[in-house]
Amino acid sequence: MNLFTLLKVRAAERRPIRVGLIGAGKFGSMYLAQAPKTPGVHVAGVVDLNPANARANLDRVGWSAARTNVGSLDAAVASGQTFLSDDWQALISHPAIDIIVECTGNPVAAVDHCLAAFAAGKHVVNVTVEADAFCGPLLAAKAGDADVIYSLAYGDQPALACELVDWARTAGFPVVAAGRGHKWLPHFRESTPDTVWDHWGLTAEQAQAGGLNPKMFNAFLDGSKPAIETAAIANATGLEAPEDGLAFPPGSIDDIPTLMRPRDEGGVLKKKGLVEAIASLRTDGTPIPHDIRKGVWVCVEADTDYIRRCFEEYQVITDPSGRYMCNYKKWHMIGLELGLSVASIGLRGEPTGVATCFNADVVATAKRALAPGDMLDGEGGATVFGKLQPAAKSMADGRLPLGLAHQLKVVRPVAKDAMLTWDDVAVNESLSATQIRREMEAMFGGAAGTRLAG
After folding, report:
1. Could you tell me the residue range of the domain that residue 268 belongs to?
2. Statement to judge: residues 151 and 230 lie in one domain
3. Residues 6+ apart with CB under 8 A from 234
4. Residues 233 and 90 in one domain
5. pTM reported for the whole predicted model
6. Whether residue 7 sits in one domain with residue 143
7. Where are the alpha helices (DSSP H) in 183-239?
8. Are 100 and 92 in contact (CB under 8 A)?
9. Of 163, 311, 356, 399, which residue is most buried, by most CB within 10 angstroms?
10. How far is CA 169 from CA 92, 166, 178, 234, 306, in A?
């Protein structure tokens, strides 16, 4: 709770935490909007495949051209300015960089960036949670082997949910469930980048003005992102995935304690200790007041009569039995909050959430009937959405992880709503992302849920 004080000390000592950012899209731009106002932190390099687009985003968030008017990364380090380029290898290998923020949104590229950063002795904040969902446990293990830190990104919902789970357990509460909110109706699974703004609540013009990527936002709408993020929560906290995927029960914040109970007590959970997503729309499509759409929550249990009486005395909103209550954070501020990860790692050597086990996986599932020759276009696209599954079941059934369902050719028919297998596509075995997933499956085998050392 004293990160800002410690940052000011680093600033006074002229010893800033030096950050390299890979990917200056929406999330990265939001972080860049805040970073200049944070003492003790220096964003020394920003890398993007398209430096001109990155420059436009920097202009959008209020950066002056003078801040990036340097000729090299060495000059940026010396002057306190920021070098803008398309050379991620040079950024990662520079000895002055302390932390790499992987912010591309491309899970295949993110694996390459994370592995290279570990090899160079750099800590990593992995904003690309799509990569964490299919190989985060092994990335965490490889970071440990390199004696560096690998972390989820504060501001994104998984890290915020992990913080709530940690609060609950540290305070002595048994955790019944945890997760995030979502705007959800079942037919959203079929949404494509061409239809996303019809459902999201923005016009196409508003989205364009904000530099919003329709494919990325469609990954939220079609249920892929909730699956990805609850998988990250499960693997970082040891909670489990529901056997049949996310149920998306609709409810307000005050309904969460009643919903997140075991079924034999009137709730929707098959058992305690699961992740879930709460829908902000009723089944008829009408909005629910006091929703948790943009936030995260944890449901805990009063396991003694004394604690139940404390809930009652302090007028805590509970389920009808008084046994279950919810704590929550209504908003997540995405890249605007990312500085907490940078400070936590740079000052305390602590990640803001990291995979400790392999409990949950996200499987590529057909949005429409797929035929041989079709090309998969990944999360948020027109061909597949992500479905949350217990990791042991996903591996046993040979399911294709959503994070690898990019530019893969379908080789046999797949029915609509069917989960794909490795055998349904022509797998690119040369990719580091494919190899690390294979390595992780071999590591865990049938023992998904085994906790990593440390």
Report:
1. 158-184+223-332
2. no
3. 240, 241, 275, 359, 360
4. no
5. 0.95
6. yes
7. 196-200, 204-209, 214-221, 224-237
8. yes
9. 399
10. 36, 5, 12, 15, 18
